[in-house]
């Protein structure tokens, strides 16, 4: 084995000697401080610089991947923060409107948050986070800053179930603000309501506001409900039917008020 190894070296000793001499030459060349040699070292470095390109490209690509991942994470955080700030701004505007309403209304009211909405074939309702411990009782008007929502039905100590005007059994006595015509409003369809049996001789214009009549122990007079969208003849042709667009969008309400009573003002 050893003999074979030495034989192989002997056969290729010229190439081996050339390799050793070239290696020594490069070593001496690279270690030399002579300016001419330094120039040659620079030329050699330029020639063999391509060897470093793949490694540089891989490192650059790896850095780009990491930077892209960081940018994606930053973008997600900023998007979430932006959504949170936008929601806070909207809530702030809504609460400001509620505070203004509380200051301007002549009713004793209790503010409440909507906890849940219930829709069944027989009963449409909302669950709010106030109850008997807050002075709430059955058959109290539930309103928002836009208008009438419904009335309290089932009252617990800290929560209350309120019937809303989209319930098929909901009825409310109303008055057309300009023509002063009275009627009973009920839920219609597609987010609308209607007042039936209006005499044909009565002139009611689209856009006329509809308010509570006051002929109720639940709803005080003058609460906004909606406005007239259209007038249609009744099925028998003897009356008119007013189609009402309610001001309140039940699907978007988050806060409501329960009317406890009118505020009492002392005479000066």
Which sequence of SSEs, written as H and E, runs from N to C?
Answer: HHHHEEEEEEEEEEEE
Largest β sheet strand count, sense and barrel closure:
6 strands, antiparallel, barrel
> What is the CATH superfamily label of one domain?
Rod shape-determining protein MreC, domain 2
Question: What do the pLDDT scores average to?
Answer: 78
Overall radius of gyration: 42 Å
Enumerate the spans where pLDDT stays under 50 for 5 or more consecutive residues.
263-268
CATH architecture call of one domain: Beta Barrel
How many strand segments? 12
Fraction in beta strands? 25-35%
Description:
The chain is of the alpha+beta class and 268 residues long. Among the domains are: 107-165 and 254-262, Thrombin, subunit H (Beta Barrel), CATH 2.40.10; 171-247, Rod shape-determining protein MreC, domain 2 (Thrombin, subunit H), CATH 2.40.10. Helix content is 35%, strand content 31%. The chain is built from 4 helices and 12 strands, in the order ααααββββββββββββ. It has helices spanning 2-11, 13-31, 35-47, 53-104; strands spanning 107-119, 124-128, 141-143, 148-155, 160-164, 171-176, 182-187, 193-199, 209-212, 224-233, 239-246, 255-262. Strands 1-2-5-4-3-12 form a 6-stranded antiparallel β-barrel. A 6-stranded antiparallel barrel has the order 6-7-8-11-10-9. The longest helix has 52 residues, at 53-104. It is elongated and about 125 Å long. Mean pLDDT is 78; it is low at 263-268.
């Amino acid at each position: 084995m050893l003999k074979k190894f030495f034989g192989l070296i002997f056969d290729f000793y010229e190439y081996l000697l050339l390799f050793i001499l070239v290696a020594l030459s490069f070593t001496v060349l690279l270690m030399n401080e002579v300016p001419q040699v330094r120039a040659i070292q620079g030329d050699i470095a330029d020639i063999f610089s391509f060897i470093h390109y793949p490694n540089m490209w891989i490192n650059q690509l790896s850095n780009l991947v990491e930077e892209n991942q960081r940018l994606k994470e930053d973008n997600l955080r900023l998007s979430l923060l932006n959504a949170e700030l936008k929601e806070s701004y909207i809530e702030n505007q809504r609460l400001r409107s509620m505070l203004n309403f509380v200051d301007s209304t002549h009713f004793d009211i209790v503010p409440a948050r909507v906890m849940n909405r219930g829709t069944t074939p027989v009963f449409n309702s909302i669950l709010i986070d106030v109850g008997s411990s807050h002075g709430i009782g059955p058959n109290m008007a539930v309103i928002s800053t836009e208008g009438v929502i419904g009335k309290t039905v089932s009252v617990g100590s800290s929560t209350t179930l309120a019937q809303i005007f989209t319930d098929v059994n909901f009825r409310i006595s109303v008055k057309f603000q300009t023509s002063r015509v009275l009627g009973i409003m009920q839920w219609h369809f597609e987010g609308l309501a209607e007042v039936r049996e209006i005499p044909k001789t009565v002139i009611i214009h689209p856009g006329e506001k509809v308010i509570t009549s006051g002929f109720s122990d639940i709803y005080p007079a003058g609460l906004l409900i909606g406005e007239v969208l259209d007038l249609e003849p009744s099925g028998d042709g003897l009356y008119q039917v007013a189609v009402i667009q309610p001001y309140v969008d039940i699907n978007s309400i988050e806060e409501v008020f329960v009317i406890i009573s009118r505020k009492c003002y002392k005479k000066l």
